[in-house]
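Weekly sync notes, structure subgroup
Attendees: PM, AL, DS (notes)

Item 1: joint prediction request from the bench team. They want all two components modeled as one assembly rather than separately. Inputs as received:
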Amino acid sequence: MKIGISGYGNLGRGVEFAVKENPDTELAAVFTRRNPETVKINTAGVPVLHVDDAKNWADKIDVMILCGGSATDLPVQTPEFAKYFNVVDSFDTHAKIPAHFEKVDRAAKDSGHTAIISVGWDPGLFSLARIYSNAILPDGKDYTFWGKGVSQGHSDAIRRIKGVKNAKQYTIPVESALEAVRAGKNPELTVRQKHTRECFVVLEEGADASKVENEIKTMPNYFDEYDTTVHFISEEELLKNHGGLAHGGFVIRSGNTGKNHEHNHIIEFNLKLDSNPEFTTSVLVAYARAACRLNKEGSTGCKTVFDIPPAYLSAKDGEYLRAHLL
Amino acid sequence: MKIGISGYGNLGRGVEFAVKENPDTELAAVFTRRNPETVKINTAGVPVLHVDDAKNWADKIDVMILCGGSATDLPVQTPEFAKYFNVVDSFDTHAKIPAHFEKVDRAAKDSGHTAIISVGWDPGLFSLARIYSNAILPDGKDYTFWGKGVSQGHSDAIRRIKGVKNAKQYTIPVESALEAVRAGKNPELTVRQKHTRECFVVLEEGADASKVENEIKTMPNYFDEYDTTVHFISEEELLKNHGGLAHGGFVIRSGNTGKNHEHNHIIEFNLKLDSNPEFTTSVLVAYARAACRLNKEGSTGCKTVFDIPPAYLSAKDGEYLRAHLL
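Output from the run, pasted for the record:
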């Protein structure tokens, strides 16, 4: 299976590493908006090309994995690339998924390609945990906790404050809330009771620390509903101790069964990830395999993880899977 | 969707309760090998019939859920019922799944029905955790822990010992092993290091306790490779404190990604169940929905959880699922 990468940042590099782990996949080409000559990749012999050349590769690539951002890149790129390729993306703006789905579906159906959108861990594996556990326990309650991990959006929001030079924001699940959920207590939890936020901030010279701290803690939507801690540190310390990309989280459904709903059941799915982008792209490559197979079977248009039989993600055949993993 | 139940023990009752939780399903009839007049069910107005009458109901039932045991019932019943019905079973003898699959597949294809076998939590949801996490992290290691919960097979094995009147056996995961796996240490674990076994035994009058204890602890396959504790208790205590059907377990994959495989990721799926049979049957009813849909689409033959798109388990449509659960 020949894989193309569009966009060579953290995600693009992650796809490149994941392709090496999967013997049935190979990297065909990397496409970038930058000057291709300035982009050095980790795989010898694979061409780096300008993104405008991509369409000339339509018959040399089985699946194009789109490694752009959800804010401005993917809403344009996924429907455009779906004209020429089977595609997989990690579009993660939950509220805009239905609109994105419609656009991509039209493009993929018109051109006879298969697209799988919103692949990764949330949306993605967490969505799978939600759909399976909801179907199995209709009488129940869902809880999703994120962290401990860096939230890119919240870190960016702090960086936009006047007087801030650099910042990292960690989202941290509240342990006591997690324990109450796991104990089957079905608590009603406010935003504040589920997560805390911890910020590491580098100030510009002469900036007013208490003013910055106040601006962070009262920022609507991002911080005002949370218990937020702000630490001021040097740029050296930020780069040394807060450069990691670890993340994770928990999806828990607590539900009841029985004649009088007397039996409680807890279904928990959790992730602890050293590298958010490398894990996300490992999921993307597994779904690229599914996109390729579905297209060969004539199943075109836009899909999500909900539409894909699990066996389509595996390089192994049905007989092997039934004998070894069932 | 009209559901039939074949076999009315703990599983059959569980299906009956689960049907009440799912507004798109209704119970059509219960079939039993006993004298139907002696079987009282919990749903008013639903007929209880002898299992020999089942084939006369072929056009009145959308999916028959088979609630027999894996040792002797299902190997015969599932292929036989697949001649007349779409069927779902919970066949859980892992080593015999490939042979069972072949027999059921032939019967279901010949008659144009859809069969889903080995549905429940292991095999079932644990198998799903294994296939997804293996496809995503090819460089990794799987761990499955069961418990704390009652093992029916081990309890039965103790009851067959001369001098034993009754017994319950709990399988208990070793907490330190679980913690080492969760910490990404990828330990090599022997059978003894993963689980302990705790037995509650009621002796016949005059039986030799130390002889029974020795026979349990040295029993090949069942106990000899484990650290086993044996408690002798009265029958009253057994019935009062050890009548529950709680169970659960953990599937964990620990895998690595990155240029030099330097990033570790932990994918964990775990269950904590007050009632093993009621949870198992909640899974069966969700897959009955999938069997019915697949059959309407013309997809016949035998399937497992690996072959079923997650959306087929849900009563909600794709648009709802994308907007709310993705």
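Discussion: The mean pLDDT of chain A is 97.
Action: AL to compare against the crosslinking data before next sync.
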